[in-house]
What does this fold into?
Amino acid sequence: PGPAAFFLPRDHEILTQVVERMVDTGEPGAPAVRETRTIATIDALCARLDPASTAPLPALLRLVEWGPFLFERRLSRFTGLDPAGQDAALRGWMTSGLALRRMGFFALRNLALLGYWSQDETWPLIEYAGPLLRRPRGAA
It folds into this structure.
């Protein structure tokens, strides 16, 4: 994937911090999200999917960013919280009584897992040796 194709640059930091919390394995050898192409992979994927499906994602990220203030009455945005606070905020989305919040959480979780675990650097953690067929030259 090339430069940002779907999310605005201001959304990348929110997405990065959401993905970091969702894929945190606690394993010392786990590559950091920022050291992989996870966010670029998610961005490129969303740019290629049906716009009717992906159009709400930037707004969802902004809701997650302002969620602590809107839903928990905390004077902070998601990106201003420490990791424990971010985990609590995401848990609030996951267990919310509002179906749309839960759906938003699972949409972001699916993107996070797909983006992170599709990176070659993460494969040793799950003892995956890689695809049986080599990628064509020049393929990302």
